[in-house]
Amino acid sequence: MPSPELLPMSSPPFQPVRTLAVTGGKGGVGKTNVSANLAVALSGMGQRTLLLDADLGLANVDVLLGLSPKHTLADLVAGRCELDEIILEGPNGVLVVPAASGRRHMAELRPAEHAGLVNVFNDLQRDLDLLVVDTAAGITDSVLTFCQAAQDALVVVCDEPASITDAYALIKVLARERGVDRVQVVANMVRSPQEGRNLHDKLSRVCERFIGDVSLNYLGAVPQCDWLRMAVQRQQAVVAAYPGSPSARALMEIAQRISRWQAPTAPRGHVEFFVERMLRQGAVA
């Protein structure tokens, strides 16, 4: 019998990963900017963060962060590579899983294929604290599946009627069809902090009246900011390029709130990112 010192050491199981899906009822509300900057900010705070571009047909996280991927999720779906081969390193050490832009078949994946993409993350051999998922806009199956698969859904909303109406429609579908009863809200491109708070309150009242049992948690507001526009033009995250700007400071404050969230302790019984890590953690406990 081999001596104890010659026995192979078993590596400790990876910790459960907190997952946040960032979405918006309509395009143009700044959803990808919020996703990318929160991920970069959280990584800079020491949170091991992975940013997944889940806008499968019109992906642009890699463009926003000035990255040049060799492989994308389209290659993974086609069986040309593994998930680990896709991952890039971005600013502040954030890890990025890029998707493909202009690939119509990626935008038309079946529900089972969306669930399959979620399940792929069970085999990812990276020790992470947080997964940020930048979804598409609207109420397509991919958006609903990725939001359901995350512990938290964050809806980005602007103070314009179409944004508010579409955000309400998205929250209603998530609540009634996918059982999502808690939604985080970020008000974007606001003219004042009070405008952001008023926007959340307006959306919350409508949801309370017509949906019922769904809670909206206000995470904060991001102001209109020329520095953010300049960062986009330079293909950089504003929190890294112009950390003293109003938009960067606001995004950092939101990221700090997110960094205090606890990792999940158990799966909820449906499709979910990193579900096997939660099951193993429960067995260890």
Explain what the structure shows.
The chain has about 280 residues and is of the alpha/beta class. It has helices spanning about 30-45, 60-65, 75, 85, 105, 110-120, 140-150, 160-180, 195-210, 225-235, 240, 245-260, 275-285, and strands spanning about 20-25, 50-55, 90, 95, 130-135, 150-155, 180-190, 215-225. Strands 3-4-2-5-1-6-7-8 form an 8-stranded mixed β-sheet, with helices on both faces. The model has no long low-confidence stretch (mean pLDDT about 90).
Low-pLDDT residue intervals, each spanning 5 or more residues: none
Total number of β-strand segments? 8
Major β-sheet, in short?
8 strands, mixed
Helix-strand string: EHEHHHEEHHEHEHEHEHHHH
- The strand order across the widest sheet is 3-4-2-5-1-6-7-8
Mean pLDDT: 91
Number of H/I helices: 13
Tell me the span between the first and last alpha carbons. Answer: 30 Å
Q: So what's the overall shape? A: globular
Provide the gyration radius in Å: 19 Å
**Class computed from helices, strands and strand pairing:** alpha/beta
Indicate the percent of residues in helices: 40-55%
| Beta-strand residue fraction | 15-25%
